[in-house]
């Protein structure tokens, strides 16, 4: 196995996430972000012959990692369609769902889709599902200036979002966006030298979230998890930026992404989930061996 392939398979917070799932040997589980298959392999090791695991992934590259195991079913889809596929497979009650929302090292090292600002000449794509949808270049070439400004501000938390959007519109009038270098060209004037990498990462993150509808998909998956999880079932989610983490935290506290806890007629709180412990972050040792997990936060909740 090459170094690149090995990196694809390093799962974040593996031990902690498996413990968080509280796996029942004969239970039914979903790995909503199959990727390199690391979490799935860990789950399968804890299941007996009657256990079942479904792995979701919309990225065609992940299919090379499919586990050859009769207890495993690969679903080529975004996890926002969780309920549809569980209904198709006659599954109405799950014992656990795990979702690792971060980009893998595979994606950051892939020179074909523009996930990293390190490869200037590559195509500015940023789609997780390369079989369809709008690319980042197409968005920069066609979206109204106000929409671009909102993307950079809401999803990248960039204070200079309006000026960046204006620069993008001015640039595309002269020459359309095609490559990572084209985007780096308009971002360069806004990046301070001491915070350049963080700034660029936030800018690329904002476009990736928009292109892949990540926040909408996460919200839909979380809502569907409530209907699918059995009482006592566990929801484990690993986030990598504050927007995701806030949504997941609210949902685990209140059962909705706004964080509003329902009350009965007597004023008693009725949250459908019970958070299990506090957010878990990677150890210094894990960060050293797998730097991409530096910003990871894992939250666990149990269906009540």
Structural write-up:
- With about 300 residues, the chain is an alpha/beta fold.
- The protein is built from 13 helices and seven strands.
- A seven-stranded mixed β-sheet has the order 3-2-1-4-5-7-6, sandwiched between helices.
- The radius of gyration is 20 Å and the shape is globular.
- The termini are far apart.
- The N terminus is likely disordered.
Number of helices: 13
Mean pLDDT, as a whole number? 91
Please state the overall shape, judged from the principal axes of the Cα atoms: globular
Percent helix range: 40-55%
Major beta-sheet overview: 7 strands, mixed
Which strand-content bin applies to the residues?
A: 5-15%
Q: Which sequence of strands runs across the widest sheet?
A: 3-2-1-4-5-7-6
Rounded to the nearest angstrom, the distance between the terminal CA atoms is 43 Å
What string, H for helix and E for strand, traces the elements in order?
HHEHEEHEHHHHHHHEHEHE
- Could you say which structural class the secondary elements and strand pairing correspond to? alpha/beta
């Amino acid at each position: 196995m090459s170094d690149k392939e090995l990196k694809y398979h390093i799962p974040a917070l593996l031990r902690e996430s498996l413990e968080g799932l509280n796996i029942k040997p004969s239970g039914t589980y979903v790995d909503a972000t199959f990727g390199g298959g690391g979490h799935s392999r860990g789950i399968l090791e804890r299941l007996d012959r009657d256990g079942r695991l479904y792995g979701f992934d919309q990225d065609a590259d992940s299919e090379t990692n499919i586990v050859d195991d009769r207890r495993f079913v690969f679903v080529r889809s975004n996890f926002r369609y969780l309920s549809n596929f569980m209904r198709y497979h006659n599954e109405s009650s799950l014992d656990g769902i795990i979702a690792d929302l971060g980009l893998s090292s595979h994606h950051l090292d892939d020179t074909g889709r523009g996930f990293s600002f390190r490869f200037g000449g590559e195509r500015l794509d940023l789609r997780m599902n390369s079989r369809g949808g709008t690319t980042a270049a197409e968005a920069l070439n066609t979206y109204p200036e106000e929409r671009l400004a909102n993307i950079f501000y809401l999803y990248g938390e960039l204070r200079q979002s309006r000026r960046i959007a204006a620069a993008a519109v001015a640039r595309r009038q002269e020459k359309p966006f095609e490559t990572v270098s084209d985007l780096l060209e308009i971002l360069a004037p806004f990046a301070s030298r001491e915070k350049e990498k963080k700034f660029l990462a936030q800018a690329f993150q904002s476009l990736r979230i928009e292109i892949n509808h990540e926040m909408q998909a996460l919200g839909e998956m979380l809502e569907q998890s409530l209907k699918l999880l059995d009482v006592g079932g566990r929801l484990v989610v690993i986030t990598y930026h504050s927007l995701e983490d806030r949504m997941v935290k609210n949902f685990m506290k209140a059962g909705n992404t706004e964080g509003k806890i329902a009350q009965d007629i007597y004023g008693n709180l009725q949250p459908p989930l019970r958070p299990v412990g506090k957010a878990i972050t990677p150890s210094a040792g894990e960060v050293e061996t797998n730097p991409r997990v530096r910003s990871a936060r894992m939250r666990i909740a149990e269906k009540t």
